[in-house]
Amino acid sequence: MVERNLIANYVHFHSSGAYGYGGKHLPWVLPHIMAFKPASLIDYGAGRSFIAQRLGRKAGIADVVSFDPAVPERSTLPDRRFAVIVSFDVLEHIPEEEMDAVLGEMARLAPDALHVIDTRPAIAILEDGRNAHVSQHDEAWWLERLGRFWPHVVAFPMRNGRVGIKTWTTSFPTWRHNLMTLRERVKMRLRKRLGIH
User: Fold this and answer.
1) Average pLDDT value over all residues in the chain
2) List of the chain residues with pLDDT < 70
3) Which of 35, 91, 110, 169 has the most CB atoms lying inside 10 A of its own CB?
4) pLDDT digit string (tens) for 87-107?
5) Model confidence, pTM
6) How far apart are CA 114 and CA 25, in angstroms?
7) Closest Cα to residue 85, out of 117, 53, 110, 55?
8) With contact defined as beta carbons under 8 Å apart, do 143 and 156 qualify?
9) CATH of 7-171, one of 3.40.50.150, 2.40.40.20, 1.10.10.10, 3.20.20.70
10) Where are the domains of the chain?
11) d(CA 170, CA 159)
12) Coil, strand, or helix at residue 55?
């Protein structure tokens, strides 16, 4: 069972209104999701973000669920399986003593996964004075740890000190992947400039 010892910190962060509205990773992960073509997707640790719903619309995935134990309206863990589980800037917030329980819970939800993990210190500080990124590790550490739960893990390029790891090798040709990423980055900048979330 997952203890979620730090959950009160994240309930507070999310209720502040300025935390957990990510979505900045969409341009870099969309090509991977579209190449994989999952029938269903769960965003684990979604916060208040709608990245999963945007991924679903763009990749043609009708069955999309967002879960986050620190967000009341998203705190019920589904009792079913999905084709793929995604997490964006989540695993670095899990204490190492809870990591295997969380990864086990995630693996029970889906046979395939895509994770984006920040390897740098966070800006946020927990109530006990620790950095909110309580599990800061390099790519090799994360590949080994995730490999215990998903036997075929591969890294993919991310940016800004983040590690991308997925459980499939299917991909688009490089030119198509890069074009799709560029197109989504331009759309994201335009949305930001126009104040559209």
Assistant:
1) 90
2) 1-22, 197
3) 91
4) 999 999 999 999 999 999 999
5) 0.90
6) 12
7) 110
8) no
9) 3.40.50.150
10) 7-171
11) 21
12) helix
